[in-house]
Amino acid sequence: MASREISSDSDTEMSSEESVREIEVEDPGYHTEDLERDFGLDEGEPEPIPANPITSIVPRSAAEARTEAPASTSSPSLSGRFKTLAKRNIQEGSSSRRMVPDPPYKIISSRLTEEVICNFYGMYDIPSSFTLTPAIKDETVSSCRGRRVALYERFFKFGLRLPFSPFFTSFLKKFRVMPCQFAPNAIQLLRGTEVIFRLLSLELSTDIFQHLWSFNRSKDGWYYIKCRVPQFIIGIESSNHHWKPEYFFASSDQPWGFNLGWGELNTTKANRKPKLSEQDKETLEIFRCSVTEEDIVFKAKVLTSDTYLAASGLCPLGPGKSSGFLSWCVLY
Fold it and tell me: Does 125 lie in the same domain as 36?
């Protein structure tokens, strides 16, 4: 089966020393005499007008131009001086006046209300030991306070559950990032990979994960992951923007087990494949022989369904839900 790769989604400072002095041109008291003093211009000596303006613009040979055009020793034109001065002023003040817009995650407000969030306990099997609260005024997904963790509802639609699994906790601890710094499809791929390893009775480590996936960052600031090996998870949800204002905060009396501050993932460093332990080498080899070398492909939506999450021990099987038949190989 052909495998395909899938993706989860100078200022050239004027260094030359110019002798032009800055002029406060906005000052209404700046008069012609000042212009003459500063620029060496005599307002009473306008530039001569050619006798025949039409012929003066007809192209001439380079030799004619050199013989007819006298050497210019006068100062640059007033307009040229002002252009140079304006450019210099803009560049000199650019460092203090440049406005860098905030990334989207610092300005997008949540539209989830407390009434909606209360339904998540039953919808996503969230234990009562966790307290779910909506974002209040001026809070964004990057607002870190106390033991609260911001989470997108889309994460739970893509298989994330509370409490976090040991692997997901160690993943966040190692890379020192918050869950909400990842795009939802990255969470779906991460969760799907965890399910596969559990169904194979293999232990997934963060080092093995780095051998299977690479990290990337979108222009909006969210991280996503990309498969390094032959594709084994398909059907990833598209990265639309409807999920961004749908977040809430979760808190617990128990420690989360990872850094709660907003971090920066060094993708270059994170994409270096770490040296594997002997146990991880063996685990990765079993995975490759069982999945990638056999061209087995899984559908992301199936892997992160309640049925597969329950079968892999990543969520309880709630009332009215049937485990059904778990097909190992879920093809196109």
Answer: no
